[in-house]
Amino acid sequence: PQRIYYLSLEFYMGRTLQNTMVNLGLQNACDEAIYQLGLDLEELEEIEEDAGLGNGGLGRLAACFLDSMATLGLAAYGYGIRYEFGIFNQKIVDGWQVEEADDWLRYGNPWEKARPEYMLPVHFYGRVDHTPEGVKWIDTQVVLAMPYDTPVPGYKNNTVNTMRLWSAKAPNDFNLQEFNVGDYIEAVLDRNLAENISRVLYPNDNFFEGKELRLKQEYFVVAATLQDIIRRFKSSKFGCRDPVRTCFETFPDKVAIQLNDTHPALSIPELMRILVDVEKVDWDKAWEITKRTCAYTNHTVLPEALERWPVSMFEKLLPRHLEIIYALNQMHLDRVAALYPGDIDRLRRMSVIEEGDCKRINMAHLCVIGSHAVNGVARIHSDIVKNSVFKDFYELEPEKFQNKTNGITPRRWLLLCNPGLADVIAEKIGEGFITDLSQLKKLLDFINNETFIRDVAKVKQENKLKFAAYLEEQYKVKINPSSMFDVQVKRIHEYKRQLLNCLHAITLYNRIRSDPSKSFVPRTIMIGGKAAPGYHMAKMIIKLITSIGEVVNNDPYVGDRLKVIFLENYRVSLAEKVIPAADLSQQISTAGTEASGTGNMKFMVNGALTIGTMDGANVEMAEEAGEENLFIFGMRVEDVEALDRQGYNAQEYYERLPELRQAIDQISSGFFSPRDPGCFKDVVNMLMYHDRFKVFADYEAYIKCQGQVDQLFMDPREWTKKVIRNIACSGKFSSDRTIMEYAREIWGVEPSATKIPPPNLPRD
């Protein structure tokens, strides 16, 4: 079969025990067995560490995709890095984020199997020698890549795929070559330098930090993986094992490489290097093979997130790859120049090499020219990709550009985390929805069914009680379980606008204070997420949230009508607890900035209602469920563009809206930081004078929309009917659907629903 290789620098897997039991159909059996041993399975599950080898959406998407590819019976492999330290653990100390190393392997990892027999060399540095026999990359430093395999079971289909993660190992002669005669001890200690490559995950979400160690990580995973792919291609029955050389004509028919963002972009020059320098394939033929093999997924349009590596770093670290990139770029620019004679500015815009004070390699441009398919991750994002980010490339090759709206696996994000809801659904429509989520549409027949309405509401209340108990036990915070659970959990970033949420919380607080006898819909506002350690503004946002909580939660006038809680150390295993308990899901990024979002889909399928902007997949969620069944507010992409042309002036909103002014003045004056009145001056200054994400422009519409949320929440029956409608219309957002589209439209394979016979039965 054609093999699919999903290359990603992140796989945010979370815990594996329960997921394995669910997919093997063993949960009840294990539950019973463990119970008979006098143990509690849930207690056991809480002991497992999360595999936190990812930052957020991009890494979690890779994990969902692995589950769906196995469930659809595809011959797919996930390839990445086995980081010794994953995403940091977040502690909150005095309201500030403090990072702690995530030593997740401390007690070992029972799910992985080291495969030293497949260890491979990876080369760095050195120089290029052009000889009559061809090009040689010589005098390199070698690091060994040790593979660790983790099984990826499909859902009850006896398919088990593999996630192979590489760990860096120094060769035994490392630094012990002839020139290093004297210091044996020093040389052995220096092995750490090589092994640091797989030491730690870079903790940036949607931000590019051009560090040499990160570039080494990117090449490390690519070089090891491509050797593995080619070894497997040659040894398979379809690779014609010529004594001279294997014929690579059929390579793209047997191998599909999907690049998860530009992080594995070096696959393109590396595959060229192997084909041309090692396998002696003709350059043009090699380029055709490379393009037909690779496909690229774009994950963001934020300029600060785009990878632009200094040429000087490449020159030192990967000299041959730099030569290849220059040659590919020349070929590409010659083609553009022929089609658009005299359009010098177009050549500059489309070049892989950016000229300037520091010459840089634009990895996104490299991916676009080196792939046969380029996709965005939600319809609105794919449109932005075509019409702005890669506009010139789209004009050149429109057929390359596609959309593949993201999805989530219903196994982890419904069955595993919300068994109560899954049971209530299965009772009405059977279990088919687990592998065909579009079947949730059948729930529309029960929208007015009183018992079903009651059952759905009951499951939500039970989930809320359970989460409230967890918060009390873990963090000693008492919350009102009959209040609205208003949740925003995601990485902390200015574009995601946690600050807009803060302004609403302050406005609500001020309204309660100014009229304490009035009746208010009680709310528990929960905000959670990690800030990149070097992102000052994100860390200030966390401090602001915790400071608002200090004031609001201890004000006797407020009582339990309003609580503001910061959820510490948000991660996959915490998401599995909070999402099923949420009433309201906040998806409030500035229109045109959130490529897709996937948390939005998890909340939808778990029976929360969404308050959000027309951004990312929210647009398609509103289309599926009907815009009137979500709380949509604020500027659309067109409005944002119009405001940019006109010039955004925050001052104007500040002067016109008294509640906004009051909130900003309180933050500014130290009302929320009495011990350090100037604490939030940077935040206020940003909001007033250089807010790229236009928080004030959406404030009024947001507050008004939140009022409509309150209105509906006071009518539990109508609220629950909207919830059911949302669940019923969430079927599109299964990663099974997403992967079927990738398979048919990019990889050229048909997914199979056939169940492999179990190993204890004889094969046909």
TrEMBL record:
Cofactor(s) listed in the protein's UniProt record: pyridoxal 5'-phosphate
GO cellular component terms given for this protein: cytoplasm
EC identifiers of the protein: 2.4.1.1
Reaction(s) catalysed (UniProt annotation): [(1->4)-alpha-D-glucosyl](n) + phosphate = [(1->4)-alpha-D-glucosyl](n-1) + alpha-D-glucose 1-phosphate
UniProt-listed GO biological process terms: glycogen catabolic process
Record keyword Transmembrane present: no
A molecular function GO annotation: pyridoxal phosphate binding
Entries under InterPro entries matching the protein: Glycg_phsphrylas (IPR011833), Glyco_trans_35 (IPR000811)
UniProt keyword annotations, A-Z: Allosteric enzyme, Carbohydrate metabolism, Glycogen metabolism, Glycosyltransferase, Phosphoprotein, Pyridoxal phosphate, Transferase
Signal peptide range: none
Modified residue annotations for N6-(pyridoxal phosphate)lysine: 602
Keyword Transferase: yes
Stated family: Belongs to the glycogen phosphorylase family.
Chain's role: Glycogen phosphorylase that regulates glycogen mobilization. Phosphorylase is an important allosteric enzyme in carbohydrate metabolism. Enzymes from different sources differ in their regulatory mechanisms and in their natural substrates. However, all known phosphorylases share catalytic and structural properties. Allosteric enzyme that catalyzes the rate-limiting step in glycogen catabolism, the phosphorolytic cleavage of glycogen to produce glucose-1-phosphate, and plays a central role in maintaining cellular and organismal glucose homeostasis.
Subunit description: Homodimer. Dimers associate into a tetramer to form the enzymatically active phosphorylase A.
Protein name, UniProt field: Alpha-1,4 glucan phosphorylase
